[in-house]
Amino acid sequence: MIPVDEFWQYSINTYRKKDVKRACLILQDELNANVNVLLFCMYLADKKTAISAEALQYLQHLIQASDDQIKAHREKRKALKTMGGDLYKKALDEELKMERAIQDILLEAFSSAELPMRNTDSFSQAIKGYLLSFDKTLVFESTHIHAINTLAANI
Questions:
Q1: Structural domain spans, the chain
Q2: What is the pLDDT along the chain (155 residues), one digit of tens a residue?
Q3: Helix boundaries (H) for the chain
Q4: CB atoms < 10 A from the CB of 40, how many?
Q5: DSSP assignment string, 77-121
Q6: Alpha-carbon dihedral of residues 32, 36, 41, 47, nearest 10 degrees?
Q7: pTM, full prediction
Q8: CA separation, residue 70 to residues 74, 77, 111 (Å)
Q9: Which residues contact 144 (CB under 8 A, 6 or more apart)?
């Protein structure tokens, strides 16, 4: 089993890298990717553990309701940003708690026998398959390929 704090710290340290953050946000904003799923895939690759696109899609399914709640909360937090102050900081803290809860779901599912692990893919193949689950007609643009390659380079 993966220690919860280990994955959280990995996520914080990895996301702090400017190019990783930018790549994650491109994939989130343009293709609906969940940043926690992307970071989890990076974490597993760093630990020399492959995961299939099918497994990533399953994980997304498990977190979808929480992901929708975070998206709504994020929009409210962004609106508070111009106001600054305590309300914005409180909203940011709440969002981080929600992100942490998603990571708990990911870790629990990964540790269970229910996660479909067959046909493990390379990091890039897994991410592309995961992203295609949102839109089967998706054609990856150069910015998307660059973002995926940036994540792979930071493992």
A1: 4-153
A2: 677 799 999 999 999 999 999 999 999 999 999 999 999 999 999 988 878 888 888 899 999 999 999 999 999 998 898 887 899 999 999 999 999 999 999 999 888 766 665 555 688 988 998 999 888 888 999 999 999 999 999 99
A3: 4-15, 18-31, 35-46, 53-81, 85-111, 123-132, 142-153
A4: 24
A5: HHHHHTT-HHHHHHHHHHHHHHHHHHHHHHHHHHHSTTS---S--
A6: 170
A7: 0.88
A8: 6, 10, 24
A9: 26, 27, 30, 31, 131
Structure tokens at 93: 């803290």
> In this structure, what token pair is assigned to residue 142?
């150069």
Residue type, 73: H
Encoded tokens for 99: 């992100």
Place of tokens 């975070």: 70
